[in-house]
Design brief:
mainly alpha, membrane, receptor, 297 residues, sensory transduction, 67% helix, two-stranded antiparallel sheet
């Protein structure tokens, strides 16, 4: 009866847990692919599907503004007296009545105040600011890349923190499954066929859970290398030294695979999974050999 109850409650729970984790992990992988596509566009002018020049204001939500065709060049922009630019904190403005060289330096000062939040100013002001200084836009775009990657890292950590509790529960239940499987292997005739079928189903579901968990952990850990390669293949070398430093810091943060660790000891990787299966295979071979030798004796 205990095995029947475990079959009714445990197996569906494990399967649902595996399904949700698998879906969430692939969603994160999809966002990483989107970020990699954005990263390859560092140092380039950005255009929409219609071929219009655009400036991204929030990469995470794919928000951008289209440059007004009334300002085709920087020289034309400097001749116009548009509205002032207000930062996110509304603590400073740019006086567009100043000469263009002064305006460009003020635009650079504004972009320094926008490392942690998307721009929340009018479309015209954003267009005028970045049209006056493409280097300032490149630097702001690179910082948006870093913020996007930080958001994905935080989401991955939350996902692992949630499922770490599930892993501990499954590890405890897995020990009971090992004991049941050993009993079924040593004394197959003393356990009813239905109970043996239940124990095999639960053991198989537990195995599937750990295999998919390790599989998802491996390809999520590879996301860092994917982003680093995307940054390396971008046009970062065309930017100013300030933007280059931001991109180099981004590549440095993603130079190694970010594995999730279990109990701060075991890394969630293929190598650990293969070693665990080899150990389990050797253990059951020893149990079967001892059982066969005891019957012969």
């Amino acid at each position: 009866m205990i095995l029947i109850f475990m079959d009714i409650a445990l197996v569906p729970t494990i399967m649902l847990t595996v399904a949700f984790f698998f879906i969430l992990a692939h969603d994160l992988k999809a966002f990483v692919s989107i970020l990699a596509k954005y990263t390859t566009r560092i140092g380039e002018q950005h255009r929409n599907e219609a071929g219009q020049l655009i400036y991204y204001t929030n990469l995470l939500r794919n928000k951008y503004v289209v440059r007004n065709t009334a300002f085709p060049t920087v020289e034309d922009v400097s001749k116009v007296l548009p509205k002032p630019i207000v930062t996110v904190t509304e603590a400073s403005t740019i006086d567009m009545n100043q000469p263009s060289t002064s305006t460009q330096s003020q635009v650079q000062q504004v972009t320094k105040t926008l490392p942690h939040q998307p721009i929340s100013v009018g479309k015209i002001s954003v267009i005028q600011a970045f049209a006056l200084d493409q280097d300032a836009y490149d630097y702001f775009y690179a910082k948006q890349i870093v913020l996007f990657q930080r958001h994905l890292s935080d989401t991955t950590d939350k996902l692992y923190d949630f499922y770490f509790t599930v892993v501990k529960i499954c590890a405890a239940v897995g020990n009971l499954m090992i004991i049941l499987v050993v009993m079924v292997t040593l004394y197959p005739t003393t356990i009813p066929f239905l109970d043996r079928l239940h124990s095999n189903a639960e053991s198989a579901s537990m195995t599937v859970f750990f295999v998919l968990f390790f599989y998802c952990g491996e390809f999520l850990a590879e996301c860092n290398l994917h982003l680093r390669m995307a940054a390396y293949n971008s046009g970062w070398y065309k930017c100013t030294n300030r933007t280059r430093r931001a991109v180099i810091i981004f590549m440095t943060r993603n130079q190694s695979m970010n594995y999730f660790t279990i109990f701060s000891i075991f890394r969630l990787e293929y190598d650990l999974m293969v070693r665990a299966f080899k150990g389990a295979y050797s253990f059951f071979n020893i149990v079967i050999t001892m059982s066969a030798s005891s019957k012969v004796g």
